[in-house]
Amino acid sequence: MHRVPLRHTASIFLICLVLLAVARPRAQSASPFSAIQTAFVMVLENHNWSELKGNAQAPYLNSLLSRGAHAEQYFNPPGLHPSLPNYIWLEAGSNLGITDDDTPVALQQNTTQHLVTLLNTAGISWKAYEEDILGTDCPITDEGNNYTTHHDPFVYFNDVTSNMKANSAYCISHVRPYTELAGNLQNNTQARYNFITPNLQDDMHDGTIAQGDTWLSREVPKILASTAYQHGALFIMWDEGEGSDGPIGFIVLSPFAKVNYSNTIHYSHGSMLRTLEEIFGVTPMLGDAGSSVDVIDLFSFQGTPPGPPTNVRIVQ
């Protein structure tokens, strides 16, 4: 029997170890945000934080401050007005050259470098819940008196609307009437990323602060009572300042949010977008998200087990 010299045996052993190390899947360092499986982003309109905090017309909104965390220094991007450029920034990390509230057909965007397309490519579900749309078409034009396209950033992207087609199946399946959210929450069939746009009365744009607060008091508890919220986060925010760039309101409610906490870190819409990309693990960082600080200071993940609890069904 031919014997392999000991030095050769050692070399073969080392080579095998190297091959095993290369072949074995490497565990990636988990982001602290990986504990969050479902995100809800609720955007209201045109008020500075100084108009809302402590306002007797917004008792419910102010009651949330002791339940979660909020930012005292959250701004829309410098000089960025009116609404639509800010909504586009939340989706793409830039206003993509948009400076007004014109229609999707007039301002249609061909880029695929925006959040929901990154999510879709990664197999992560998303939906936009728009109050007062019909749900039978892709809402690329205003519907009724209270839905306006410039508060719905997704319908400005051609890869969502199939090049501005009202019958786009992809758009219709993802941009849904807000009335469907309650049933989806009860059945745990909501998406992992859920963008919520109240109508023009309920978002404090045409309606009063008191009307918006009443809407929040009716709708927010539905999310907080859901199974998805157990490993989720609700971000309540405003699109832009009134007569200034802010600060504007930014509140986080989550089982992982710090309780009765606020900070004075400077945040902007790039911070919100970066946080969402980190929650869902998608890249590249889009536009301003790449240079913005995330909002992790508003959370505490110490001792949090990764992944959803066993009784939560995440629908892709």
Q: Tell me the name of the CATH homologous superfamily.
A: Alkaline Phosphatase, subunit A
CATH topology-level name? Alkaline Phosphatase, subunit A
Radius of gyration: 22 Å
Q: Widest sheet: strand order? A: 4-3-5-1-6-7-2-8
Uncertain ranges: 12-29, 305-316
Structural class: alpha/beta
Major β-sheet profile? 8 strands, mixed
| Count of folded domains | 1
Give the CA-CA distance, first to last residue: 59 Å
What keyword list fits this structure?
8-stranded mixed beta sheet, alpha/beta, 30% helix, 8 strands, 11 helices, Alkaline Phosphatase, subunit A, 316 residues, disordered C terminus, globular
What does this structure look like?
Strands 4-3-5-1-6-7-2-8 form an eight-stranded mixed sheet, sandwiched between helices. It has 316 residues and is α/β, with parallel strands linked by helices. The protein has one domain: Alkaline Phosphatase, subunit A. The protein has eleven helices and eight strands. The longest helix is centred in the first third of the chain and has 18 residues.
